[in-house]
Design goal:
The protein is mainly β. It has one domain (117-130, 138-443): Pectate Lyase C-like (3 Solenoid), CATH 2.160.20. It has three helices and 36 strands. The protein has helices at residues 2-8, 48-60, 223-232, and strands spanning 29-31, 42-46, 64-67, 71-75, 79-81, 85-88, 104-108, 121-123, 129-131, 134-136, 151-155, 162-168, 173-177, 186-192, 197-201, 209-215, 234-238, 241-252, 256-260, 268-278, 282-286, 294-303, 311-315, 323-328, 331-336, 340-350, 354-358, 363-367, 370-373, 381-383, 387-391, 394-395, 409-413, 419-423, 431-434, 440-443. The strands form three sheets. The protein has a 21-stranded parallel β-sheet that branches. A 13-stranded parallel β-sheet has the order 5-8-11-13-15-17-19-21-23-27-30-33-35. A two-stranded antiparallel sheet has the order 24-25. The N and C termini lie far apart (84 Å).
Length: 447
Amino acid sequence: MLASALLLMPVIRAPSARAGQPDAPDAGWVSVRKAPYLAKGDGRSDDTAPIQAALDAVGAAGGGVVYLPAGSYLVRTHLSVPAETSLVGIGKAPTLYREKAPGSTLLAVEGAGQADATAFITLQGPNSTLQGLKVFYPNQVIADAPVAYPWTVRGGAGDGAALIDVLLVNPYQAVDLATMGGSRHYIRGLYGQPLLKGIWVDRCTDIGRIHDVHFWPFWSQDKKVIDFTEAHATSFIFQRADWEVVENVFSWGYHVGMELSASKDGATNGQMSEVDFDGVDIGILADATQQPGVSISNLAIANDGRGKTRTAIWGRSSEQGASQVRTLNGVEVTEPTSVILFVRGGSFWGELDRVVKWENAGLVSVSDSRLVPWELHGPMVEILDGQANIHDNSLLIYPDVVKGAGPGTAIVIGPKVRDAVVHDNQLNGNRIENAAGERASVSGNRP
């Protein structure tokens, strides 16, 4: 009986020194520093050819991992990651870039002054991945206007592009999941300081996921850089995306935190939570969504005196009669290009001229939120068009921040508003002005 049991036990062999890290591409793992590739990683030698050769070999063998040991890899042109292939560095989380301890860093230099040129890295897909590495532009400058560069990462024609635990130190444009499409994209643990555009999503017809993104001055806090970003940059752009899922994202010092707009392929709908925009001129700039709308829970937007608009949520006026075509259950459906936006559990504070400015023909709903601007330069919430649900919020001037700041207008409902429901808010001495008459239901608000 014992002999039979021993025959059934698995044979356990001690791992060899190279176990899990074979060099042959058909084994699914290669190091760019080993033969036949022999990348230098010294920051001076052009490592484009050896890295691309390793990627091509692994891709041709059906996919696997191309490993970048610690070092600085100068790439004079650009790279393409084939289907089922991952370009992987040593990082297990997004980390700071330091020249003397670079981790696995790619140095990008091609395309200076050419924002529309070939992206630095193209994830051809399906299932191409960047993981555990950093990208740094050594020739970027501290100036009133930084040098324009192409997108750092672009999704290719295949689905399932992924970025995991990646630091993009100082890209001009960070991640393009729009030009070639980006269905089922997956981002987790992306840090960086995009100078003009952060993440752009479009042509995504199956759920994309974006988690744990932190856009902050990892490269430079020089006033020239900060002023440029504040005046021109957008951290997230969402256009055609069907059921986008966004969780735990943050950006600081941008002109626009998030843009919701329509391309020729349409607009977005989705679910978002733990969304934070700090030091931002416009928190959410909303031009268009799909009719199911965008729902955001636990949204925080603050302004510390930056910019000229100083508006947390701005639903801009949509083009009269504009529409988009979507395919639902195999049928083409034409729906209006307006904004449907739900915010629950928001926190808004700082030097905000408006918490909500709504000029769109769609619907805005704000509930269970805290509105505490430092002072009033107009109403906290201004509804000028469309529909609105404003309920169960606390609207208060932040105490003792600005001397003499006192109660004023909490909510304005303009004469063009189609329908509004405003109820059970704590006004804290602020008032409601209703110019929509019976088209607005105003009730149960605590003075």
